[in-house]
Amino acid sequence: MLESLFEHRSNKYELIFFDNIHSIKFSPFLLNLKNYIPKEHFEPYESGIATTSCVRDNKWVGLPINIDVTFLYYNDAYLNKYKKPVPKTWEELLKIGKYIQDQEKNNNNTDFLAYNGLFSRSEIGTCSLIEFIYSYRKSLKAPIPELQSEESIEALEMIKKIKNEIASDQFFQEMEVFSGSYINSGKFLFAKFWYMPLLIHYNFTNLPGREEGLSGSVIGGYNLGINKYTNDKHRDAAITAFRFITSKEMQKKLVLENQEIISAIPSIYEDEDVCLKYNCEVFKNLQLVTRPTDKFRDYDDYSEKYRDWIYEFLYGNKTAAEVLKKIDDLTKYIILKSIQKIHYLKFSSRLRFLSNDFWIISVVGSCIIMSSLYTELEKVTYSKCHIKPILLCIGYTLNLVPIACKLIVNFPEENKISVWVSKHRYSFLLIFLLIDLSENLLLYITPYEIEKNTNINGEIFQFSTFSFSNYLFLYAIKIIIYYIKDDKKEETQIILKIQEQFQNSTHSCQNSSDINSDFSMRSDKSNNTYRVSKVLETSTGLQKLLKFHNKEYI
């Protein structure tokens, strides 16, 4: 419904309540509250999760009305019976759960659940995975571990270990209704569940972590924003209502009057009135994390793939490293995915510099450039040595020539070149591609040579060598010098001199300098010979290049 309203730029509703996972999705259609509300109003929220769940591109697009969090519920009856403490780490939960489960089995209690997990094939499954991985971060202030990090792999392996030793595939995949009924029946030891004040018979605490003091809980809940299409007449009233609903005073009142509401303002759980009614320590120690809604515009699709692929490890035979790499690769297609943005109306004003076809060509060029890195993997081969420069040449041409084409067309003064390029854009691009093709075909005249070398540590490595391009460079210089001189006699002397340096490349730089001086003394004879001396001032650099060709390598 909200998508339809925003697409039609409807101003039917001023205040918008939306699920916090859609903050990015709806942010273009909501007011930047910083421009209308004093910064003092946001300060109570800034020390909490709101800066992550409500700020997009440095804009406050909303504020939380209520957040949902998960806790670890525990059955005191079993813990007291076996004199076991409430676990602070996942290892402790596994150890205590396994011990009590074995004891209950010995007492013929077969209808006993040590831990539910909530790793179902719904959104709660994604939440359970994210918060478990978050609880395995290195320190309290550290962000959620990268997908392919050791911490993420250890977290998934611990989940599977808990499932295999104190639960089962069936229990772990059950929905929330099943877990709720099991908690109400009292046939459980530990259970992860959303905050439910109705479960008054059981205590709850923060979820365990990799180490004591670490935890994690994914947030749910709803944010409140203001429709940016609201007309001026109603906007002021909407802002007033927004400030009233999201004020600290109103949030405190909502928490006191409704036990199901958890505020996103951390300081509320330091209030004496609130702490008389709630266990404030548990709420103050919450370590909240948001879901990765910024990975894709369609978060629901990403979430489904995220949990389904991890479940290939949890309930299947794949390794944790394999499935995490598979998920991480989802974000590697972001360059190709960005091509779609040229069709979005909201991006069109920022993408007018190039036409759609040239934007696509430029992005494809970027992909080709990056793909050249694959030629550096594994063993060095002749084909890889030839493919890499081809990919780089074509990639840079496709990436940069569209921009160069536009710059030439937009030249301040109209000229024949800009007019021709404007009418023959693809011909202009084709010229550069043909040059790339011609240059790379020349590389096949003298193929690369693959050589081996050993470093000081005795390690053997391979590299490819190719010097034909340097010979082309030298002979190109000779041809240029030959045709730009008027005095053929002086030009012949220059060429002979270069040939002599080519044959005696072991001469020192000092000899080269003497030669330069000798030629420079004759520069006063005429303007032509002066130009000759200027050319030969660079003979030291040429000599070094010639010396490189004649140098012998072992």
Automatic annotation (TrEMBL):
<feature type="transmembrane region" description="Helical">
    <location>
        <begin position="353"/>
        <end position="374"/>
    </location>
</feature>
<keyword id="KW-0813">Transport</keyword>
<protein>
    <submittedName>
        <fullName>Periplasmic binding protein-like II</fullName>
    </submittedName>
</protein>
<feature type="transmembrane region" description="Helical">
    <location>
        <begin position="426"/>
        <end position="445"/>
    </location>
</feature>
<dbReference type="Pfam" id="PF13416">
    <property type="entry name" value="SBP_bac_8"/>
</dbReference>
<keyword id="KW-0812">Transmembrane</keyword>
<feature type="transmembrane region" description="Helical">
    <location>
        <begin position="465"/>
        <end position="484"/>
    </location>
</feature>
<comment type="similarity">
    <text>Belongs to the bacterial solute-binding protein 1 family.</text>
</comment>
<dbReference type="InterPro" id="IPR050490">
    <property type="entry name" value="Bact_solute-bd_prot1"/>
</dbReference>
<dbReference type="InterPro" id="IPR006059">
    <property type="entry name" value="SBP"/>
</dbReference>
<keyword id="KW-1133">Transmembrane helix</keyword>
<keyword id="KW-0732">Signal</keyword>
<keyword id="KW-0472">Membrane</keyword>
